[in-house]
Structures are given as C-alpha cells and as structure tokens.
Amino acid sequence: CFPSGLLGGPPKRQALCTCSGAPSLSPLAGLLERPVLPPQAAVDVVGYKVFVSGRSGVGKTALVAQVSGAEVPSAHQETPGIQTTTVFWPAKLRESGRALFFRFSFWDCGEAALKRFDHILPSCLEKADAVLLLFSFADRASFEDLPRQANRVAAAAAASQSSGRAPLQMVVGTKFDQFAHSDVTEGDLSALGHSVLRVKSLAGRRAGLSEVAPLLNGLAEHLWRQDQADAGLLPLDTE
Ligand SMILES: Nc1nc2c(ncn2[C@@H]2O[C@H](COP(=O)(O)OP(=O)(O)OP(=O)(O)O)[C@@H](O)[C@H]2O)c(=O)[nH]1
Ligand SMILES: [Mg+2]
User: Fold this and answer.
1) What is the number of domains present in the chain?
2) Torsion sign (Cα): 113, 119, 123, 124
3) Of 38, 72, 128, 200, which has fewest CB within 10 angstroms of its CB?
C-alpha cells in the first residue's frame, strides 16, 4: 500500500505488460504497445525510465521478468546488452479520484556488458527518472558493492544530465527467500540509512499481484510525489 496516502493502489489487475528490445530475449515482445481502453475510459499515462543496477547474477533480469508478469528464468544467463521492458501500472489519486496509468520502462543491462562498453551506462542513465540499486541477500559482496554502485550511477547521471534532477535511487534486496542463510544482517540494513525493499523472484513461476505491488507502488508513489514537488504542488521530499 502507499505509505503517504497520495495514491490508491490498483483496484484490480488492469496492469498490462509489454516488452520491447531484442525480440529473441522477450517472449512478450510486440504483444501490446499500451493498454486498450474504451474511449470514454481514456486515462492519462505518465512515463518513467527506470535503470536497474547491480552486480552480475544479483537478479536484475529475474526482477524485471517478475514485475512484468513473465516467468522468472531458472538459470542465470548473462544479459548480453540492454533489454528494455515496459510495464503499465494503474493507480488512482486519492485526493481527486483521478485514475492514471504509470508506464515504467525498465532498462536492464548485463553487468559484464556494462563494464565492457563505456557507452552503455550513459545510455541507460540518459533521462532516467529512477535507479534501482540491487544487492542480493545471498551475496554479501553485492551488499558491500552498493556505495560503489550509487557513486557510479550518480557520476554517470551527472555527466549525462547537465540539467534536470538526478534520478531517484531505491535500494532493493533480492533473493530474500535466502535471508535465513544470508550474512547480510538486519544491523547491516539499518546501518545503510536507506529503506530497503526486499523481494524474492522464484525461478520457473509468475509472481502474483501482491508480490509485484510493493515495488511498482513504491516507484509510482516516489516518482509522482517528486514530480508534484518539482511543480511546487507539494513540499520537497527530503528522503
Ligand atoms: N532463489 C532465488 N533466486 C533468484 C532470485 N532472483 C534471481 N535469482 C536467480 O539468480 C540467478 C541470476 O539472476 P539474473 O536475474 O539472471 O541475474 P542478473 O543480475 O540479470 O545478471 P547479469 O545479466 O549477468 O548482470 C538466476 O538463476 C535467477 O533464477 C530470487 O529472488 N531468489
Ligand atoms: Mg541479466
């Protein structure tokens, strides 16, 4: 649920998912360009670009598959370049009752490709609205890598966005199903000084709505509030 009361969560499963990018990587490619609605029910669509960052094998591709309603791949197959996935997510503004669609464009790039080609990171961050910084509960090194990731993203974003604001950063802990065996402790998470969204993307299945809602609602809430604050309609979010 939305923590701050600005938006209402999706009343029912209207979310439609489309994928673009390399068709061979995406079984849903080209199915839909956007949700089809009757003319009288036309709603505004607000689009946001979201870059997914994290070490190789941390679960970036699995997470994007999960939020787009696709089956989570069971084996780690390094993402060879950039793969973009579009997810439509409906919401209703609590204050006005107005319904709108969020259109998230997730940019997932294999970490090895990112390191190999200098031009990839600037492309991923060009006009990005948000960055998901991923670490895995099953890999302490990926947790310790978070400051480097955040700095890398901030530096590249500053270089590619001479004007405009820096992308919003959200920390996501993947493989939460392995928390019992994790050596990332609650103390480590508190010391981070940043809220952490915990997710599990179990291979070979499609996630239910309740599993994808926290991430999509969180993104929608933060990005919408930031836009409203920029437009002078809300006090600036200090987090
Ligand atoms: N148990 C469990 N396994 C997961 C989870 N998320 C991802 N995995 C597995 O972790 C492996 C790597 O996941 P990917 O999503 O391919 O990793 P990636 O970050 O995209 O890696 P690169 O493309 O190489 O940068 C796969 O075998 C996934 O099935 C999770 O939440 N729980
Ligand atoms: Mg990948």
Assistant:
1) 1
2) positive
3) 38
